[in-house]
Amino acid sequence: MALEHLIRRILVSVDTAPSARDRTGWAASLADAFGAELTGVAAARPLIPSYSPLGDELLAYQPQIIEEARRRVEAAVGIARTNFEAANAPRAAWKSSLETDAVPFLLHQAGAADAIVLGRNGTGDACDAFIGVDPGDVILQLGRPLLVVPPSATRFSAARVAIAWKSSRESRRAVADALPFLARADEVFVCAVGGDEAGPEAAAVVAYLSAHGLGAKAVAEPRHGRADSDAVFEIAERVDATLLVAGAYGRSRFKEWVFGGVTRDILDHTPIPCLLSH
Questions:
Q1: How far is residue 163 from each of residues 36, 156, 275, measured CA to CA in Å?
Q2: In degrees, to the nearest 5, what angle opens at C-alpha 191 toward C-alphas 188 and 193?
Q3: Domains delineated in the chain
């Protein structure tokens, strides 16, 4: 089976943020590149308070509260659908729910997809919180490649791919998941940041890709006091990469939240679309 045939169904999470249209446009161009079907998903359920200082007086207003909560959810999902349909994907489907939280609904739908597209964190791009999906909330549960797209990215390109390599289970999984994308690339750069071991590690990945008929170049650099993520971003900028590939959460998400880490920095700051795998 050709590598491109491994991507047949793509899922994009859509919300009310202004960048949602750019994200769905990017996902539509990705689907077009692979001849894949694109499904937009959005879900939310009415947030109804279960307690009020008014006590029993709240009961008199309960029908109005429920109706207003439902109207808000319907409006948000309706905006999300409009954002999705603006992409005009040729093979498109829409799935939504007004009774389920956004994350569980996305995870349920992910079982029928080969790749998932979400928006990047930390954008200041406001949307209704109950309909948006944080990539960090789903990456450990997806079991699928996750493509994180920054605002203003509107068209998919894998012309030049930078692989953020670290000798870990997550990085190995990411490289394997990225093979259909690497097969489309004009240039692939295996970027290893660290000490003396960085060069041989990068060369080993180049040899692995060569065995699959894919050309790649090793780029090994010392840290020079930089965070690994900063070094990877700098390399990606230098080689004009259009897609970044990385393993996600090589240590616990809690430790990354407390101490920082590459995954957290990518989710918050990646300047280009990134394929993450765990």
A1: 24, 17, 9
A2: 180
A3: 3-46+75-149 (3.40.50.620), 160-277 (3.40.50.620)
pLDDT for 53 beyond 90 = no
What's the angle, vertex CA 237, arms to CA 226 and CA 207, rounded to 5? 85
Mean pLDDT, the chain, as a whole number? 88
Residue 37 identity: E
The conformation of residue 251, written as its DSSP 8-state character, comes to S
pTM (two decimals):
0.90
- Tokens at 236, concatenated: 């990606």
Helix (H) or strand (E) holding 188: strand 187-193
Sheet holding 217-221, edge to edge: 92-97, 37-43, 9-13, 115-119, 146-149, 274-277, 243-247, 160-165, 187-193, 217-221
Q: What is the mean pLDDT of residues 190-207?
A: 88
On the question of pLDDT at 229 being above 80, the answer is yes
- For residues 144 and 110, give the distance between their C-alpha atoms in angstroms, rounded to a whole number: 8
pLDDT of the residue at 225? 80
Listed residue (238, 244, 198, 236) closest to 218, CA to CA = 198
- What mean pLDDT is predicted for residues 158-166? 96
259 by DSSP, 3-state: which? Answer: helix
